[in-house]
Design brief:
alpha+beta
Length: 646
């Protein structure tokens, strides 16, 4: 029968396991977090009281119960949520079967695996820092089981081990062939992503205005367009049911032909995942990545949903003409009933040329006493357009785009709503544009016979500063915006820009270090293929070089330096030697201390104390005596002794 495990190392193991579970519990259901916390506290109490562990059958019943609850919550015991929850539950229950050093090693291996599993959900720079700290904690508690040295010495060894491992880890990260995963785990939190939706109804964009999370970042090849020209095209809404604007099924056929009437702009977008197929592009894209196409609504569409951060290069027309569009007929659709006042107003413009109808609607908004706000009054269902245009006259960009498009269709001008983003903040530290969810915007496109589809933004008539300078300046409602989107102190704003530059660098060079970037690096080093004898030889030589340097560094540490007690004693004897009392090779520490006490009787107590601590630590294996010895030697002086520190 195994002897009970030591209390203190066992408590460290439980605390380390709680640290490992912490980031996972932030994503677990509350009931599972409470259950795991209760199990850890119970195991700690058993260790503290020295009680017997429950029988294995009890742990088996607990595991069945947790599995049933996990299945009811996540509908699966696999994947990012169900699988990690099941692993965390099993590992926690394993603590109740930890009776021997072998069990400690097993639970420590499970803890290492849980640290790696945390990157399945949040592969961020914060998670890396936490993972390094967690792995140091796991390794440290393993060392505690195998050594009786004090924490100070174990900590030094732990840091030294980390410094030894980092060069090899960096080498493998850079040069080990980047391969696609052998399996894939679907993202079970599709609905949890923020961003543009497949539909637009009043309130959608005003809610996004309160979200300061990043939507995408843009690096321009050349000149940077001014803020009023930065319209980032997303979903296009054709169908209107009286309350909600919807997309038609995306199709590549039947779209218009596009003719550029101005220069094109090249840029690279790093987009955050949003679990939709569309890509964001400035105005009308002229060049797309290989995995994308342009729909018949002039929208860039990826071949699969964007579930991971994606970086792609595009070119766009800044001014254009379109023609021969088979979708124009759909851009006049309206419900049969509802909003009679808006229909009557639009009917009064039908005798005018199309461009004048557009100008009439814009003039109506400009002179109608409308205001731009994040908190508009509620609209009345099917007559929401009338309520907005003729009663409360307060709204956000989606209200103006929706109402203007309705007026245009009722006046016989083909039109549609376009959702996307507008503007963005330039980060001069990283030389890129930051576009946040709060930059979400909606505008209108109208079809004119001479120029085809052209952008008309009614918000620019009501709140031109919104287009040129962003939300905060125009709204004057800082309390309704996120803190950083209002008017934070200048030093906080600068700190935010610098931090975002670091985050972007992390995304580009760590998270974005894929097969393509690795091959570009290999080509610069003269390696044309990964699977080649040349690459294998260079890889072996590089690893051998790193290991050789680490070996030479370890060999430089002499046995005396590896023995802290011996090192402290040598420092002590050198201090006495400078006063004429040297220790011969044949003389032991006790005899030497007696002789030194006779030569320096005023320091008898200090010399005797140091000798006793050295003998206890060197020959008695008393680890606590090492620290006492080091402290006493550090403060020992043949001229003066600080007795209070002994």
């Amino acid at each position: 029968m195994n002897a009970p495990l030591a209390r203190m190392p066992m408590h460290y193991l439980i605390a380390t396991f709680a640290l490992v579970l912490a980031p996972h519990c932030l994503r677990f259901s509350p009931w599972l977090t409470l259950a795991l916390a209760a199990l850890l506290l119970w195991r700690a109490w058993i260790t503290y009281k020295g009680s017997a562990l429950p029988p294995t059958s009890f742990s088996f019943l607990l595991a069945l119960g947790l599995f049933l609850l996990i299945w009811l919550e996540y509908k699966s015991l696999m994947g990012r949520q169900g699988g990690v929850a099941a692993l965390a539950s099993l590992a926690t229950l394993k603590l109740f079967e930890t009776r021997s050093p072998r069990d400690v090693k097993v639970i420590s291996l499970l803890a290492y695996f849980l640290v790696g599993a945390s990157f399945l959900s949040v592969p961020s720079q914060w998670m890396l820092l936490w993972a390094l700290f967690a792995m140091l904690a796991i390794t440290g508690q393993l060392m505690l089981w195998q050594s009786s040295q004090p924490w100070q010495l174990l900590g030094k060894q732990l840091v030294f081990m980390l410094c030894e491992a980092l060069p090899l880890a960096l080498l493998l990260f850079v040069f080990f062939p980047r391969m696609p995963p052998l399996w894939s785990m679907p993202d079970e939190q599709i609905g949890a992503r923020t961003g543009l939706s497949d539909e637009m109804r009043p309130g959608n964009f005003s809610q996004l205005a309160r979200d300061e999370s990043m939507a995408f970042r843009v690096e321009f090849d050349g000149r940077i367009p001014k803020a009023s020209a930065r319209y980032w095209r997303g979903p296009v809404f054709d169908l209107f049911d009286g309350e909600t604007w919807l997309q038609v099924p995306l199709d590549e056929a039947g779209g218009p032909s596009v003719t550029a009437s101005g220069p094109t702009i090249g840029y690279t977008i790093t987009m955050e995942p949003h679990n939709r197929n569309w890509l964001l592009a400035m105005d009308i894209p002229s060049e797309l990545p290989d995995s994308a196409l342009i729909s018949n609504r002039l929208q860039a569409v990826n071949s699969s949903p964007i579930t991971q951060r994606q970086r792609y290069h595009l070119s766009s027309f800044t001014t254009w003409r379109t023609s021969n569009d088979d979708t124009v007929g759909n851009a006049l659709q309206l419900p049969k009933f509802g909003n009679p006042q808006a229909r009557k107003l639009a009917a009064s413009w039908q005798a005018l040329p199309p461009l004048e109808r557009v100008n009439k609607a814009l003039q109506f908004l400009k002179d109608g006493g409308f205001s731009y706000t994040l908190q508009p009054p509620l609209s009345n269902g099917r007559n929401g357009i009338d309520d907005f245009l003729f009663i409360h006259k307060q709204g956000f960009c989606e209200h103006y785009a929706s109402s203007f498009t309705f007026l245009m269709r009722a006046a016989g001008v083909p039109s549609r709503v376009v959702g996307g983003y507008q503007g963005g903040e330039w980060n001069n530290r990283g030389k890129y544009l930051m576009v946040r969810q709060s930059n979400a915007h909606a505008w209108t496109e109208v079809w004119l016979a001479q120029t085809g589809w052209q952008r008309v933004d009614p918000t620019a008539i009501i709140a031109p500063s919104r287009i040129d300078n962003g939300l905060a300046i125009n709204l004057g409602q800082a309390d309704t915006l996120p803190f950083m989107e209002g008017a934070p102190p200048a030093w906080i704003h600068e700190l935010r820009l610098n931090w975002d530059s670091l985050v972007n660098g992390w995304n580009q060079w760590v998270m974005g270090y894929d097969t393509r970037k690795q091959m570009e690096l290999f080509k610069k080093l003269g390696i044309s293929e990964v699977v080649s004898s040349e690459f294998i030889v260079r890889m072996i030589l590089a690893i051998s070089l790193v290991l050789g340097l680490l070996f030479l560094l370890a060999m430089r540490t002499t046995p005396a330096k590896r023995d802290p007690a011996r090192l402290a004693w040598q420092q002590f004897t050198r201090k006495l030697a400078r006063k004429g009392c040297s220790q011969p090779i044949y003389e032991g520490p006790l005899t030497f201390s007696l002789r030194a006490s006779l030569q320096f009787p005023q320091h008898h107590e200090a010399i005797h104390y140091i000798a006793q601590q050295y003998i206890a630590s060197r020959y008695g294996k008393d680890t606590a005596a090492i620290l006492k010895l080091q402290k006493a030697v550090r403060y020992f002086s043949c001229n003066q002794i600080k007795r209070s520190l002994l």
